[in-house]
Amino acid sequence: MHEPRKLYVKSFGCQMNVYDSNRMADTLAKEGYVETQDPADADLVILNTCHIREKAAEKVYSELGRLRKAKQEAGSDTVIAVAGCVAQAEGAEIIKRAPVVDLVVGPQSYHRLPEMLAQVKGGRRVVDTDFPAEDKFDHLPAPSAAATRKRGPTAFVTVQEGCDKFCTFCVVPYTRGAEVSRPVAKILGEARALVAQGVREITLIGQNVNAFHGEGPDGKTWGLGRLLEELAGIDRLERLRYTTSHPRDMDDGLIAAHRDLPQLMPYLHLPVQSGSDRILAAMNRRHGSALFFEIIDKLRAARPDIALSSDFIVGFPGETEADFQATLDMAERVGFASAYSFKYSIRPGTPAAEHGDQLSESVKSERLARLHQVLEASKTAFDRACLGRRFDILLEKPGRLPGQLIGRSPYLQSVVVTAPPAGIGEFVTVDITEVGPNSLAGRVVDAVEDRGRTSDRPLAAMEA
Ligand code: SF4
Questions:
Q1: Does ligand 1 lie within 6 Å of residue 246's CB atom?
Q2: 163 CB under 6 A from ligand 1?
Q3: Into how many domains does the chain fold?
Q4: If we measure between CA atoms, which residue out of 6, 68, 77, 20 comes closest to residue 48?
Q5: Per-residue pLDDT tens over the stretch 200-251
Q6: 108, 128, 148 — which closes off a domain?
Q7: How far apart are the CA of 283 and the centre of ligand 1, in A?
Q8: What is the 3-state secondary structure (H, E, C) of 157-175?
Q9: Ligand 1 mean position, distance from CA 271 (Å)
Q10: Are residues 367 and 271 both part of a single domain?
Q11: 430 and 380 share a domain?
C-alpha cells in the first residue's frame, strides 16, 4: 500500500477562505491526500491567500521565501501552490517572482486542482485564474463524515460569491468577480448533509451574503430571509448565522427572519465603514448614515435582544475631522457589541488609490486610536452586561486547561466552562460568572434538551 500523501493548507483572511480551504482538502482527500499540521512533512503546501489587508502580496512573498529555504534545506520535492485572492490578483507574476511556486489557482477553479496537480507532476507550472463557465460547487465533493466531525459542530456554507457593489476601496469585485448565488436546493442539500454528520450551527457565508438571490425549488428567486426560513426547518440545525452583509441588502424579508426564527442568532455583523455621508458617498457605499440607523432601528424592533458588530475604515482619502467625528458619533449612538476598525490603506487598482487627498499615517493612527477607544468601551459594556446572564452555549473545542471546554454564546463570545470532553458538539445552559477581555467564563447549570422546531423562545431570552 502507498503511504498517503500529505497536504498542508494555510488559510489567511476571512471565513470564505477557511471554507474554501476545507473544500480544497475535501477535493484532495479523494485523491489520497491527508491533512498535516506540519508544512515540513507535506507533499503539497497550499497558501490560501487574502488580499484585503495591507501589503497582502508582500506577506505571501515572504512566506514563499521561507518555504523555498525550508524546501532547499530538506532537499524535498514538495509541490507549492498559491490559492485565493492574491493568486487571482497576481496570477503568473507569482511564479515570476517566486519560482518555488508550482501552481497558482484562483478561487473559482479549486475543483480543477487534481488535473492541475497532474500537470505539475508532468513537469509543468500551472496558472489558472479563469472564471470558468462551469459551477465549481457542482464539482467540489462534500466533506467526508470524518472530516466534518474533525472540524467540529459548526460549519460554514457558501451561498453566494463575488460582489457587484464596487466600493472604491475594495478589491473583492476584481478578485472574486460578479455576484453569483447558488441554487437553494444545493445549499439545502449541503446543510442537511452537514447536520446528519453532527453539525449544529451553520454560518452562511458570501462576500455580500445578503445580496443572495438564488433560484428556489419553486423556480422563483429567493432572498436570504426565505432561505433562512427553509434552513430553520431542518431538524437538529439549532443555530443559524450569516456574514458578511451590506446595509443596502438588509431587506424587510431578512429583518422579518430575525423576528420569526429562533434559530437565527441575535447577533449581526453589518459593516458600515464610516458615519459620514460625504465619505460614504466617496466610498460608493450607496447609502447614507440615515439608512443605516433606520436598519438598526428595524432590527432592534424585530429582535430586541439583537447585538451588532461592524467594520470601520478611518482616514479614507479626503476624510476631515468633521467626517471622522460623525463616525465617532455613530459608534456611540449604536453601541456595538464588537467592531473591527482599520486605517485606510491603498489597494492598487481601486479608485480610492488614485485619490489625490491621501491622509498622513499620523492622522490615520491618531483617529484609529480614538475610534478604538469608543468601540472598546462599548464592547466592554456589552460583555459586562452579560455577567449573571444565562445562555445556551454550543461546546466546540477543548479549553487551555484540562477539564475545560470552550463554546460560543449566541453573541459569538467564547465561553470557557468546566465540562467533560464528550460534551463537544452539545448545547449546555450556562450562567456567566466571569467576564475577561477576550472571553467569558461560566458554570454549566444544565444540558440543553433538543428544542427541535417547537420552541418559540429566542435563544438569548432563555435567561433567568
Ligand atoms: S460590498 Fe464589501 S465586498 Fe463588495 S465592494 Fe464593498 S466592501 Fe468590497
A1: yes
A2: yes
A3: 3
A4: 20
A5: 999 999 999 999 999 999 999 999 999 999 999 999 999 999 999 999 999 9
A6: 128
A7: 10
A8: EECEECCCCCCCCCCHHHH
A9: 10
A10: yes
A11: no
- The pTM of this model reads 0.84
What cell was used for 162?
Answer: 463575488
What is the distance between the alpha carbons of residues 395 and 196, in angstroms, rounded to a whole number? 18
Q: Which atom of ligand 1 is nearest to the CA of 285?
A: 6
282 and 406 both lie in a single domain: no
CATH of the domain at 42: 3.40.50.12160
Same-domain status, 230 and 316: yes
Boundaries of domain holding 305? 136-385
Determine which of 105-114, 269-278, 318-327, 364-373 has the lowest per-residue pLDDT on average. Answer: 105-114
**What is the average pLDDT score of the chain?**
90
Which three cell numbers mark 215? Answer: 433560484
DSSP track, 380-392: HHHHHHTTT-EEE
Asked if residue 340 has its Cβ within 6 Å of ligand 1, the reply is: no
Nearest atom (ligand 1) to Cα of 171: 8
CATH number of residue 434's parent domain:
2.40.50.140
Residue 172 Cβ inside 6 Å of ligand 1? The answer reads yes
Ligand 1 atom index nearest CA of 176:
3
Closest CA to 358 of 287, 282, 276, 289: 282
Question: Domain containing 248 — which CATH number?
Answer: 3.80.30.20
